[in-house]
Amino acid sequence: MKKTAFIQRIVIILLCAIYTVGHQNAKAQSNMVSTVMGHVKSDQRSRKASSASSDVPTPEALKKYLEQNWRSPEQYIIEKFKTRDVILLSEEHAIKHNLELAQQIIPELYRAGVYNFGVEFGAFEDQALADSLVTAPEYNEDIARRIMFNYNVGWVYQEYRDIYKAAWNLNKSLPAKAKKFRILNISYKYNWAGCDDKYFGIRTAETYNRIFNKGNTEFYRAGVIKSQILDKHEKVLVLCGFGHAYTRYNTPYYDYREEHFYRFDSHRMGNILYRLAPTKVFTILLHYPFEGKTYGPMILYPPAGGAIDVVMKKFADKRVGFDLVKTPFGALRDTSQYSIGYPDFKLSDMADGYIYQKPFSEYEGCTIDKNFFTEANWPEVKRNYPDKDVERVPESKEAYLERISRYVDLKWRYRTVKVPD
Domain residues for 4? Predict the structure, then answer.
């Protein structure tokens, strides 16, 4: 028993080291991950055992359901707007094909009477600028770049900005007096300049109030959607990080003061919107790997032990959207970190719908805009570098780009994901 506990402590130390040196030595990281992977075999065996439960849908049942209910991602989203006003696309950031879906669906949204697309990656203070950008006679890439820069000086990804361009292309094609499509910025400008080196490693209510000077970001974003969409009886498709999109699901957190050493967070943007309008809000999960209970982000797993990935191997066309609630896919069990505090956790506990487009082995990261950082704006980048209470500001723009490049290297990011045969 003591030996096992000692090994576990060593594994955790190795994982922490991987996280700390995340962008320094890929070869060394690979070797360390291989060492850690040797300690997760028993975890994988337990996952297989749990998935063998008699009430878990078989691959044949999953395949049959898709054959009878097949919808392309675009068809699936549009269909849901017949009964919903706010649809949250729950993404892992910087995955290229998800952003391409966001761009391509804009004309179809318009034809379906949905005139708004919400983005996490723009500040509402710049909404007038965004509105003028997508309705201007000519598209201005510099303005689009500035909107993104104002929200996050590190959000260098071309495909996110191209959502504005897709809206501009649509609006340009419309009759002069037609209602125009809108990109809705749901965030605000954070005051990272108010967090200097002396606060590194320190997160307090005081520092947070200084940085997030318009209040809790989840409540703020929900407030924008309420005032701009729900109160006006409009509809919106929102692209946001998966942590913001939960509606019925409450996120578990480790807390040693609680009876069972975890507590639940019910204050995500989706939670708040769901309480405001439970029949109007719908969450769709965009296929991404889940963090494990034990190793967190260091070891990633395919959702539901890979059951979705396995069944999708049977289809040539892999772009599909489907329901989770009251379906075989929703009945799939999952033992990832999301299951903490949920004794019989199923995918339907987490979201309403699901979109699969391709296997993890084919995922590509977004395109980095090499013109995003310049000598002229580098001082501003350093002042407003995000999360600098827990991460040091890069020495140079080249170092920053190298760090970002590692993030969009999905072969590296998903290097631990193993899909069953």
Answer: 1-39
